[in-house]
Amino acid sequence: MNNYKISRLGLQLILVHVIFWIMLVLPPFLFRYNAPPNRFTEYSLYRILISNAFLALLFYLNAFYFFPSIFKKRGLWIYLLVLIAAVAGMWFLSQYIDTELFPGKRKWNRSIFPNLISYIFILGTSCSYRIITDHLKLQKTNKERETENLKTELSFLRSQVSPHFMFNVLNNLVSLARKKSDKMEPALLQLSSLLRYMLYEGNHDRISLNQEINYLQGYIDLQKLRFGDDIDIDFTVEGNTNDFKLEPMLLIPFVENAFKHGMGTLLQPKIKIAMVVQNKNLNFKVENDVAPIGESKDASSGIGLNNIKRRLALLYGKLYSLEVKEENQKYKVDLNLEMHD
């Protein structure tokens, strides 16, 4: 696909050059065609072609050698001397062709000034062409560098999710081990499934929403094995989730945070997770009870929240909104995503 795009851009550039030279060469033919008989016989085919051949040579020499290699590296004065020498050489060579190869064709001596105007026009055009192409290349390079930096940052942010998740899950397993619970084996099996998802799906750019839902459900089931009936969890999904895609492990930090701060606060804390999909829009809400004022909170939750905010900003730009608030001992997250191509 990338090679196709490059070849397509190359063909477009060639087409632009062809159109430019056709527009430059064609007017003398049209002028000669409409001229009265026996007038402007100087505009013969060979002179038009030779004249424009010199102009084309000057254009490409300046655009691809004189301007980038001499002007940018050796300065303006050397560059001007080279241009003067090139223009003078081409003018004398064209004079030689007219007088030696085609004697008797010219009725009058050619002045340098009309040709000088053509040379100046071509030099100005080629300089403009080179400046514009260099600017576009620089923009492309900067964009590629920016994209690469964003990928690196996203990779780093995503890598932070896994250790954070593992720390929470291992706490669950330690709790079950201390109780010598018979739920230890299903918990390990559930953990194996989650790790498989992290290993194989977590490296993809985007996955289906159904895969992310299964991952969230697996994490919730693992937490239920630990807390049992001590917690009230309500997880609902509405809408068509088959066609929606998003980045992997994008929603789990909000659910982790709900369990972290929703436990140990009330006799039976509640966590409510609601997902609604409408066309290309996803609304994801998480609500949980929070610890009373004065109870210590894990500082890593702030790190996790900042992490996910940065990921959302990099991935979705203006295509998302996130509202996080705490009121009446309730911690509420309201995330809206618009699926992008």
From TrEMBL:
Gene Ontology CC, one term: membrane
Positions of the Signal transduction histidine kinase internal region domain: 153-230
Record key words, sorted: Kinase, Membrane, Transferase, Transmembrane, Transmembrane helix
Molecular function per GO: phosphorelay sensor kinase activity
Gene3D superfamilies reported in the protein's UniProt record: Histidine kinase-like ATPase, C-terminal domain (3.30.565.10)
Transmembrane segments: 12-31, 43-64, 76-97, 112-132
PANTHER family to which the protein is assigned, alphabetical: SENSOR HISTIDINE KINASE YPDA
Record's protein name: Histidine kinase
Native organism: Pedobacter cryophilus
Lineage: Bacteria, Pseudomonadati, Bacteroidota, Sphingobacteriia, Sphingobacteriales
